[in-house]
Amino acid sequence: MDIEKRIERLQERLTYIRDIFGSKENANIKLLGSRLDEFMGREKSLEATERVRLVTQLEDLFAFLEKKLEAELTPMDRVRIVRHPQRICLKDILENVYDNYTEIGGQDECSIDPSMLIARAYFTRRVGNKVINQPVMVIGQEKGHGQEFRNGGSVKPWGNAKAQHYMQVAEVENIPIHTFVFTPGAFPVEDYPGAAQQIAKNLYEMAGLRVPMVAVFSEGGSGGAEAIALADKRLMLSHGYYSVISPEGGAAIEGRTRQGQRVPPELIEETARKLKLTADDCFRQGYVDRIIPEPPLGARCDHYEFYKSLRNELINATNQVVLNVRGMKLFRAMALNRRKNAPENLDAESIFVRWTLSAGAREHLVWKRWQKFRKLSQHAYLDKRTFKAKVTAKGQEMAWALHSFFRYDFLGKHHKKWRRMVEELGAEAQFVKNKVSSPFKMIQERFAPAVELVDSEAKKSLTELSNPEEGIVLNGHGWSYASPRCREDRTVTCPNAATHGCLDQWAPDLFGEYAGVCAYCGHHFPMEYQWYVNNVFDQGSIFEFNREIESGNPLEYEGLDQKLEQAKKKTGLKSACTTFEARIEGKNVVVAMLVGAFRGGTVGAAEGEKFIQAVERADKKHYPLLAYVHGTAGIRIQEGTNGVIQMPRCTMAVRRYIERGGLYLVLYDTNSYAGPLASFLGCSPYQFSVRSANIGFAGPGVIKETTGTDMPPDYHRADKALSHGHIQGIWDRREVRKNLNQALLTMGGRNLYYR
Fold first, then answer.
1. What does the alpha-carbon distance between residue 569 and residue 574 come to, in Å, rounded to a whole number?
2. Which residues pair with 235 in a beta bridge?
3. Are 200 and 156 members of one domain?
4. Could you count the other beta carbons within 10 Å of the beta carbon of residue 145?
5. Among residues 18, 45, 72, which one ends one of the domains?
6. Eight-class DSSP state of 698
7. Cα 752 from Cα 755, distance rounded (Å)
8. Would you call the peptide bond into 193 cis, given omega within 30 degrees of 0 as the criterion?
9. Which of 164, 263, 348, 630 is the S-S candidate for 312 at Cβ 3.0 to 4.6 Å?
């Protein structure tokens, strides 16, 4: 390499190191700077051989001190590494890891979304005397090296839609999918499709993809990462991070920083540490399967040895996924399993596995994927059930499963065949009977005397005006539960008074008879979750289960234990999700309710586990499932990846339930935002909202910080969500019971099941 280029490279390395460590004082960085400045000051007076010798010494010094600095990296330093423009990007990987590729779905600026890059690539393998090309579909966020049009890897909804489309193409072609997560988070817009709407679709699709999937994490920011990361093998670069929220965002919430205020750097550093977002943290918690070692201070575009290592890891990971569901694998599987904890010692080219799967293997792959995610985060919640209670619950589940098998699968199939045959024979007999009897009916109608079809009293009631004083009792709706606010002797002003001319209303009327609905404009004031529990479902029909599963503090996040105890004491609940069986007009239903009064209805490991168990209960008992969202602020940030992993886990459970014939309804109320909406709630085919609810991926403040754009006041209103197809209807609170009953009848049918 030319001496000038070597010097320029050293200057770039020093700039990079200073960027990573920010304003922190560090003796090693000062030493590197002083030595380089000293050399630059006397460079021109040196002879060529002396310059080469000193540059070589400097390169050795940089390599030595970079290794020392590597040991000093904090979690926030690692975040700065993955955000740096010199960080490897997806195009670098395509150029150096795969043997050939073609970019599809648009290129650079001429793409529906330049932040999402799709390529058809292949590995070339030599097997004996043959050369075999093994194709893969590569999907990932592309940040580039400071290219502004890439939007920093923050993908818009249509970019995620593009990814979903090519995932389906890969499934049709029966080729593996490699995804690369390089995103700080999804771009929070609510056009069609909205950000939450599309991420939910992606997760639902990935849950059932019947081809091997391998995901590689570099920068994994919340829902934007999950949009392409539900994979059979999840690898993570050693300097990467995977988090429910950015450290800056978490620090702003922790410090209650107002919009426009700067968050102290010390608080950001501390939040990054508490979130446990590094590769080691994620591996220890079980959310990634393997860490891929990088060069000191992170992989950059000219680290060619790293590309060889990454290629090796990708091939081995894909081989493992395929061999786990294939036959004829004994010796190859033994070799992989023996070295699975050290794949860097296993030459990827030495083991050949054909990556196409048979129909049976593809179905087994989806099952294995579900089993993998079902086991995650089991350590992250509190289960205070006694051993006897757990055994009893397991016994009940087995009994339900056995009953379901015999009633619906074994006997049900034969019953359906018999019923269809009887219906067909009955229809044929009825047709013949009508044909034979039609001449006799004609003769009878011609000679029979006219008969009054409607008696005089009935005709009178149908044709005359009614008397309102007879038989009418104006006693309101007769709610069995009224809000405690109805006992307040005061008037309440509607938020729409200035625009709609609403008059002030007396609290006993508004929160009693009117159920919190403005009598003038229909605005819905927030109501307690108990109002729905007592007024929507049949009296005495509610049976709560899994109450003993409690929210915990798996990251030992400072201050969270006290906040959880306060929430438990205030609400009488043990988590933000309460699950129960109930009846509506005699129809059985399983309900999972997110309660806004408990920590904003945020979802963590306990809430996710309770939701999944509710889905499984509805499946085993062949009941419809209702997710009622009294309010949710998203994923609980203090649980970090333990919370964000609930997005794919719960979505997979929902997909299995729906595919097995379940009827899944979602009803939103008050404020419903972020991760739950972008996953297991947003994937329902039947979503409805109570009037005046707010529905969206991110709140107005987050959108302002992310995009710099002020959102109109009605941006997240239910009617907007209805207009772009996120929800299918808007209901008045006073008619929720009636509308749910109608939905169960019309969408579920007689057996209240989809099929």
1. 9
2. 216, 290
3. yes
4. 15
5. 72
6. S
7. 9
8. yes
9. 348
d(CA 377, CA 652): 15
Q: Which residue has the tokens 């040991």?
A: 71
Please give the average per-residue pLDDT across 453-461, as a whole number.
63
pLDDT of the residue at 551: 92
- Provide mean pLDDT across the span 171-187: 93
pLDDT score for 345? 57
Summarised one tens digit per residue, pLDDT across range 550-596 is 999 999 888 888 999 999 999 999 999 999 999 999 889 999 999 98
Residue 239 placed within a domain: yes
Q: Which CATH number belongs to the domain containing residue 686 in this structure?
A: 3.90.226.10
Neighbouring residues of 192: CB distance < 8 A, sequence distance ≥ 6 = 724, 725
CB 115 within 8 A of CB 157: no
Q: What whole-number distance in Å separates Cα of residue 661 and Cα of residue 672? A: 27
Burial of 438 (0-12, 13-18, 19+ CB in 10 A): exposed
Site of tokens 């309804």: 665
Please check whether residues 141 and 257 belong to one and the same domain.
Answer: yes
Q: Looking at the structure, do residues 106 and 68 belong to the same domain, yes or no?
A: no
Inform me whether the pLDDT recorded for 462 exceeds 60: no
CB atoms within 10 A of CB 368: 13
Q: Report DSSP letters for 574-629, one per residue.
A: SSSEEEEEEEETTEEEEEEEE-TTTGGG-B-HHHHHHHHHHHHHHHHHT--EEEEE
Asked if pLDDT for residue 172 goes beyond 80, the answer is yes
What domain count does the chain have? 3
* pLDDT of residue 486 exceeding 90: no
Domain contains 199 = yes
The per-residue pLDDT for range 311-364, each reduced to its tens digit, is 999 999 999 999 988 765 555 565 566 555 555 556 767 778 888 999 999 999
For 174, residues 6+ apart whose C-beta sits below 8 A from its C-beta are 211, 356, 357, 362
Q: How far apart are CA 536 and CA 558, in angstroms?
A: 39
Q: What is the pLDDT of residue 469?
A: 44
Nearest C-alpha neighbor of 113 from the set 152, 156, 146: 156
Q: Are residues 46 and 173 in the same domain?
A: no
Judge if 370 and 273 occupy the same domain: yes
Question: Do 7 and 121 share a domain, yes or no?
Answer: no
Mean pLDDT, the chain, as a whole number? 85
pLDDT 10s digits, 403-456: 777 777 667 666 667 777 887 888 888 878 787 888 877 787 777 665 555 566
* C-alpha 434 chain-centroid distance: 56
Helix (H/G/I), strand (E/B), else coil: 146: coil
CA angle 480, 481, 482 (to 5 degrees): 125
Q: Which of 42, 72, 102 is the last residue of a domain?
A: 72
Amino acid letter at 343?
Answer: P
The residue with tokens 């074994």 is: 410
Residue 701, domain extent:
529-748
- 539: amino acid identity, one letter: Q
Q: For residue 127, what are its two tokens? A: 């097997």
